[in-house]
Write a structure and sequence with these properties.
- The protein has 166 residues and is of the alpha+beta class.
- It contains five helices and seven strands; from the N terminus they run E-E-H-E-E-E-E-H-E-H-H-H.
- It has a four-stranded mixed β-sheet with strand order 4-5-7-6. The chain has a three-stranded antiparallel β-sheet with strand order 1-2-3.
- The longest helix is centred in the first third of the chain and has 14 residues.
């Protein structure tokens, strides 16, 4: 018989890792899953719902993660809503540091391994989006027409050809 272990490691403040290990012994599976969870730690981006008052508390935008047939969608929620989800994603979202979030899951969510991996993929996708607050300032340069407008405004006078004698 094989033992499968899933372990989640999070600091409840913007980092989370998920480790899955299979072994013949329970203790070895747990130890391996913890090591893999620590090695797969990712940063989590948090955002606001509505006004940007206080600390970020929810997902920055709607994100989706998929594993197997399970598709998990995380939707921003107003402050005070809490984590509206099934127990598996709720544990991951809580460890990642989210306070408020709506979730929507489709597929065979009874397969807890795929459910956890899909939630982890959705959480990882929070840094996949480049939102306007992450844009670098744009420095605009003049177009060639604008830069050489004085030269272009001069009337063009055709120069007579000089004859070359050999």
């Amino acid at each position: 018989k094989q033992w499968y272990q899933r372990r989640v490691r999070g600091d409840y403040d913007g980092h989370i890792g998920l480790g899955v290990k299979c072994s013949k012994e329970v203790a070895t599976a747990i130890r391996g899953a913890i090591i893999l969870a620590k090695l797969s730690v990712i940063p989590v981006r948090r955002g606001y719902w509505g006004n940007k008052i206080g600390m970020p508390h929810t997902v920055p935008c709607k994100v989706t993660g998929k594993c197997g047939s399970v598709l998990v969608r995380l939707v921003p929620a107003p402050r005070g809503t809490g984590l509206v989800s099934a127990p598996v994603p709720k544990k991951l979202l809580n460890m990642a540091g989210f306070e408020d979030c709506y979730t929507c899951a489709t597929g065979q969510t009874a397969t807890l391994g795929n459910f956890a991996k899909a939630t982890f993929a959705a959480i990882a996708a929070t840094y996949a989006y480049l939102t306007p607050d992450m844009w670098s300032p744009t420095v605009f340069t003049n177009s060639p027409y604008q830069e050489y407008t004085d030269y272009l405004a001069k009337p063009f006078v055709k120069q007579p050809k000089k004859e070359v004698k050999y």
